[in-house]
Amino acid sequence: MVKNKNLVGRSSHSSTRKLKKASSQTASTKDLTPLDDPASSDISAALPELQISEQGQLGFPDKVYLLASVIFQNNCSEKPAAQRLVNYGKERGIPLPEVKDDELQRTAYELAFSTLKYQELLEDIMVDSGFYLTQPLPDDQMGLVAVMLYDFQDRKFLPWEHQEKEEIIQEVREVETCLLRFKTKLAASLARCRIKHDLLSIQCILPESVKMKQERSSSLPLYTWVNTLKSSRDEVQSVLKSAGFSQVKSVGQLEGQTFCEDIHCWDILVFPALLKAQLYSTKLLSEHKLIIQDKACSLGPHAVCSVLPEEGDVLMVGCFSGLTVAHTASLISEKHKSNSTNNQPTVYVCVSDRTDTQREELQQAVSAMGCKNVKLVTEVFQSLTGGDKRLQKVRVVLLTPKCSLSAVSNPVEFILQENADTDLLQDLSQGSVAQSKLEALVAQQTKDIDHALKFPKVLAVVYSTCSSYSEENKEVVNRALEQAKACSEQEGEPKQASFRPSLYLFNIPSRAEDPKETDPYFILEPSEHNNGCFLAILIREPEAVVKEAPQEVLARANAKGILDKISCNQPTRKEHQRHTNRMTKMSHVHTSQPNLSVSIQSKNQQIKGSNSTALCGHQEFNRHQLSQGKSKALRLQGLKNTMPISFLSSRQGNNSSSPFKPENSTPTKSSTPVFITPTFTTTTLPPAPPSATPVVRPRKAHQEELKPVVLVLPPVHFPDFFPPQHSRTGFSPSFNYSKWRTPSQTVPRSSGGLVKDIMVKSRPLF
């Protein structure tokens, strides 16, 4: 027989009393106060163990009542002494009796949670009926009385019917006997309370938030994810269809033996809540190919997988189960399945707050699901730094801190599966979290996210909660980002990376319809189809690349004595451009040819050596030919001795490298090649001096495309040596050379007009 030392033998007179089961167990219902409760309790609806026999109604095993009473006593609300109706003793933090059966443990937590929700109502019944003042039970057993009284009224005050081989716990049977003796008075007190408050059912006394969650919990579908380390989605769906399941398009269409795919996560399959037994019959659950887990726990691993680079590890910190660890590992393995090196990323799990038993259970659960890339870290997260050799390749941190679970509709099941804080049961049973407890949670969340952002090689931090309070969600994240930015800008402190919230990475149809949606955080609101969730993906911003000017590089190098004091006082590009323009203008004003008119196309490039514009006549032409290369100069020199100069000026190639760039040049938009038409007062050109010194151009820092140039020189007066028989070439004795335009006339600035004017006035020679 299992006994709890804290509950057994606390009262000498209660242990010595010889109690017998009342013979009125099979009494008719006339001795009872009938309560027409239209809504059955969440316990009786959720637990198939509650059965009805001919004499009474089968309840729970004694160890379930005992475990539920300890959970209730550790979490019940305690009022001031002046307002206290029932005293539950001074003991808190009582160790839980060992129950190896997970289903019985879940049943005990559900029973304790329901008792917490109706604590005030149950206390009123105990006081109004006189049970609390007349029954010889110690205060330490009043927690057991409250738990069994809730179950007693839930069964319409029908007596318990125990199984033959059931384990007997004496304390439970003593409380049962006292309640059966007071069953009529207890039922009458409940009836008076319902009449007083006009309650159609006892659920009406609950706060609205608690009633809403209770209604949602009864309709929540069953979420599962495919373990890609054991199977694939196609294989699982094939097995389901062969077992009689049919696939539908959405969660709203789930009815009967059906399933559907989730809209956010590709590996999640959703089933109606009552198909758990049918899923076990397919052996998908027993073979760990399909894992039952709430959807809110699957969004974080999917976000991690989406931002993880090819070579990078993951660090998991916070409150989660081995199922979440295995899901993260399976998604990463699936993503890197095509990696030829077979070097899978490692999932590091911080388990500093777990007991040795919990660590062993986590490792066993991960191994059972085929995960080989998981390693446990026993150090406290705050003590871990970027210098840790194990964490050198960590690029993503998944942070799921302890939160209020205010967005969860079925908190008991969630707490048990995800290893959450059971101390939240009392707050969740009343529909709100105490301010002091909320502040403590926020303080720890802030500390964790601040530390996660300090890792120098981390590229992303995924922050996830199941809370509906903005204090735990947006406010924590925004405050952490501001703190990180302030530290990065503060002088004298180690520079901290700058992070920014990234847009949600999943395909959300609702957001696609709203282009104005700018919230970078993902918030899954709690509903009848899912629990709530908050998700933030913080991405490291790339560091800005600062480009130094050449003068700054030289100055810094000279300061270190690297370049032997190379001059760095070179003028900047703008200063050099202004100097070149000024020298060009001065040279143009003092030129020796008063009739020289230059029209030039230029946009950005200024050519050095502006003193060359002072040359005129033959020297000007020869200098231009030298800049074009020796080949052009030789070809032009041979042609000028065999034909008139006018032919030389009729067609010229596009000159894109002219050294001339006067100040008063006008850009042109014409794409027609520009012709250079030089005219001279002599018929022949003297050869270039053999000792002419080539123009030495300074080295250019940046080569830019040059624009074509139009150069107009003074007119040439031809002598009368052309014979009349040459009229077939285009010249005639009556050719009037005075009609040629002189430089004194205004030259149009339009490039198109200038070229057109030259082409019209210059008649072909042949």
TrEMBL record:
Xref: PROSITE patterns: SAM_MT_RSMB_NOP
Comp. bias regions, Polar residues: 22-31, 648-670
Positions of the UniProt region annotated as Disordered: 1-40, 648-673
Highest taxon above the source species: Eukaryota
Any one Gene Ontology molecular-function term assigned to this protein's record: methyltransferase activity
Active site: C466 (nucleophile)
GO biological process, one term: methylation
SUPFAM superfamilies given in the database record: S-adenosyl-L-methionine-dependent methyltransferases
Keyword entries, A-Z: Methyltransferase, RNA-binding, S-adenosyl-L-methionine, Transferase
SAM-dependent MTase RsmB/NOP-type domain mapped to chain residues: 212-541
Pfam family of the protein (one): NSUN5_fdxn-like
UniProt entry tagged with the keyword Transferase: yes
Residues where S-adenosyl-L-methionine binds: D353
UniProt similarity note: Belongs to the class I-like SAM-binding methyltransferase superfamily. RsmB/NOP family.
PANTHER family: METHYLTRANSFERASE NSUN7-RELATED
Protein name, as recorded: SAM-dependent MTase RsmB/NOP-type domain-containing protein
Source organism (scientific name): Anabas testudineus (Climbing perch)
Organism taxonomic ancestry: Eukaryota, Metazoa, Chordata, Craniata, Vertebrata
Gene: NSUN7
